[in-house]
Amino acid sequence: MDPYIDPEALDPAHPLTPRKLDNLARADAAHRRLEVKVDALPCKVTFQTTDVCNLDCPHCQIPRAQKTAAMRPELLGWLREQLLADLIELHPTNLGEPFAWPYFRALCGELAEHGVILDLTTNGTLLTADRVEWIAPIARDVKVSFDGATPATFERLRRGASFARVCDNVRGLVARLHQVRVRRPVVALQMTLMRDNVEELPALIRLAHELGADRVKAYHLFSFDPAMDEQSLMGSLDRYEREILPDALELGDALGVDLQLAEPSGGDPAKLNRQVCHLPWHETWIDVDGAVLLCHSHGGEVAGHLDRFADAWNGPLYSRVRAAFAAGAPIGACDGCGMNFGKSAEHVAVPYDPGSFVRLRRGRDEVGWSGRMRQFQLRRRERP
User: Fold this and answer.
1) Please, is 285 exposed, middle or buried when counting C-beta atoms within 10 Å of its C-beta (0-12, 13-18, 19+)?
2) HEC-encoded secondary structure of 335-380
3) pLDDT of residue 44
């Protein structure tokens, strides 16, 4: 079972739900048996609709001036024809702002028609009441990027956004999603932890409680710019791990806010639970140009194109990767990736690979824990 897919959030009355659950069962069986050829289609897709964003955050992987790539509308047609009937969840873009894609409303309509649920990350600035209506019938998990709990920090790190307006938008979102009866959508405030905001993590938990959000997520910065390296906590984790994290966990428990926070460091790799990454059997990534990619840390290898998805899904690249897992010797970007290791519980110590957070590389003998949460891999990426 893929932990990032929630089949219980499907509408049981939708005519395609039995087909989706059958597809998931076949994907689960193929994963258990480590089959090279999979008699199922992906259950979840990350659909890189656009790189475009209306903000200019200093820690973003792509500077705003370079955020020009967006999917052509025919890719939405190919998605509908080949994948939506079997798909459980879709996540639209983890590089840009999904509401900035001109066809996002049409995508939401297609998801609703085909009974697909939405896993959404947004900066919250465009969550007007009419746009919230686009996502309300399909939303399962809405994460609003919130890199500060005070107006000064928030507006410095999320340049172009208004703290007060985004807070109002989150209140409206929460109120509308509480009216959904098919599922209970989760609203989360999400922080990228860095020197300039880590002290505000407890305040963000209080803010989430005040706004009615269900969850706070906070993970370490990935620096893609030498100027941002000094913002990384990797060289000075002590205060976060000894003081801020324990206080945050206690506060979340007291306020009833679910927390998914960066774990403390220092875990023993030998004590992690070895597992076979579920992604090659359950999920796929479609880039803005339609390229089919293995995952967010794909290493630049392309499996094929969306216009002939079946050829890519059981084609040479996916087959090599699955066969390597079956042989117990993952290859390429899969070798040593943290997706092949599981924790015994939330917020236990894990073996970080600090270099990956500032230089995008790790030592040969390290567990690539960063692979579990790294932003979209752009190496050798083609631009449409």
Assistant:
1) buried
2) CCEHHHEECCCCCCCECCCHHHHHHCCCCCCCCEHHHHCCCCCCCC
3) 98
- The Cα–Cα gap between 57 and 107 comes to 26
Q: How many CA atoms lie within 13 A of 200 on its CB side?
A: 22
Alpha-carbon torsion (55, 57, 61, 63), positive or negative: positive
pLDDT at 363: 62
- Cβ(71)–Cβ(100) under 8 Å? no
21's tokens: 């659950």
Are residues 119 and 141 in contact, defined by beta-carbon separation less than 8 angstroms?
yes
Please count the CA atoms within 13 angstroms of the CA of 322 that sit on its side-chain side.
Answer: 24
pLDDT number for residue 380: 60
Total count of residues recorded for the chain: 384
Euclidean distance between CA atoms 169 and 162, whole angstroms: 11
pLDDT at position 384: 46
Residue type, 199: E
Angstrom distances, CA of residue 260 to CA of 191, 324, 344: 10, 31, 15
Contact 69, 50 (CB under 8 A): yes
Q: Is-contact 265 345, C-beta < 8 A?
A: no
161, 169 Cβ separation under 8 angstroms: no
Radius of gyration of the chain (CA): 20
Q: Which positions of the chain have pLDDT values less than 50? A: 384
Distance CA 361, CA 344 (A): 26
Q: 189 has which bridge partners?
A: 144, 216
Lookup: tokens for 58? 């200093």
Between 201-211 and 245-255, two packed helices, what is the crossing angle to 10 degrees? 10
Task: Give the sign of the dihedral formed by CA 315, CA 316, CA 319, CA 321.
Answer: negative
State residue 362's pLDDT score: 58
pLDDT in tens, 195-232: 999 999 999 999 999 999 999 999 999 998 888 899 99
Assess contact for 324 and 333: CB atoms under 8 A. Answer: no
